[in-house]
Write a structure and sequence with these properties.
Elements (H helix, E strand, L loop, with lengths): L1 H44 L4 E6 L4 E5 L1 H8 L15 E5 L11 H6 L4 E10 L4 E12 L5 E10 L1 H38 L5 H33 L14
Antiparallel strand pairs: 1-2, 1-6, 3-4, 4-5, 5-6
Length: 246
């Protein structure tokens, strides 16, 4: 009888030991998962682009890094607040027209689509509109089923401003180049077709204008080449002695 009791107690003790070992394994796995989650959060928050994780069926935001929250909510919202589409922000077409709900990048990714470099407008709750470049794709489990969607939003306000500056610069350069080219062409055309009928003073004046406008055009082109060299980091500085007055 004592042996039977000891065997029963040993079986219970073995079960308790197994459970304790399993509990330690589960606790260690949970701790490792929490550490990986914190590392992932740190990595996401260090990215300059906004990253969102959206869940089916309506694309509710489950996770957003700091850049995404600042983009969709603004800097005044408390940390940890998750934006809600239609309440805190809404997506618009790049021309400002409304975007159908089922065409939002997150919902399209939840249907299995992949969106690459698509431009939209984000209209925040305060009415401010920001141009964004969106990337989106589905996240699948081991069975291949779509369980989440990842959406990456990049604020391209600076890019739009740079493009506008470039367009303005090209327009200005085109205007400045057209003036000397027109003068050179007009003077050369007049000398070529009516040079014999012009008096010497007029011919000399036309030739002087052609030379002056050619030098002006050459200087403008040199400035443009110098600007391009500066932007590319290929401009080598030159030194020369300077007299410093006492």
């Amino acid at each position: 009888r004592d042996l039977d009791v000891v065997q029963i107690l040993a079986a219970h003790a073995a079960t308790a030991i197994d459970r304790a070992h399993l509990y330690r394994q589960v606790a260690a796995a949970r701790l490792q998962a929490e550490e990986q989650r914190d590392q992932l959060r740190t990595i996401l928050d260090s990215l300059p682009a906004g990253v969102l994780i959206q869940a089916p069926p309506d694309g509710a935001i489950e996770l957003g890094n700091s850049a995404a929250l600042a983009l969709l909510l603004g800097p005044s919202f408390p940390s940890g607040t998750l934006p809600v589409s239609g309440r805190d922000y809404r997506m618009l077409q790049s021309d400002g027209t409304p975007l159908p709900n089922d065409q939002r990048p997150g919902l399209r990714a939840l249907r299995g689509e992949t969106i690459r470099s698509k431009q939209f407008l984000v209209e925040r709750w305060d009415g401010q509109r920001l141009p964004v470049l969106a990337q989106a794709g589905p996240l699948r489990d081991t069975r291949g089923d779509i369980v989440r969607a990842v959406v990456v939003l990049q604020d391209i306000t600076r890019l739009r401003e740079a493009e506008q500056l470039k367009d303005d610069f090209l327009s200005l350069v085109s205007h400045e180049l057209r003036t000397p080219v027109t003068s050179i062409y007009g003077g050369a055309h007049l000398l070529a077709h009516q040079g014999d009928s012009l008096d010497r003073a007029t011919r000399d004046e036309l030739l002087t204008d052609v030379v002056a406008e050619s030098e002006r055009l050459d200087q403008m082109l040199s400035n443009l080449l110098g600007l391009a060299a500066i932007q590319a980091g290929r401009l080598d500085p030159t030194t020369e002695p300077v007299l410093i007055q006492p």
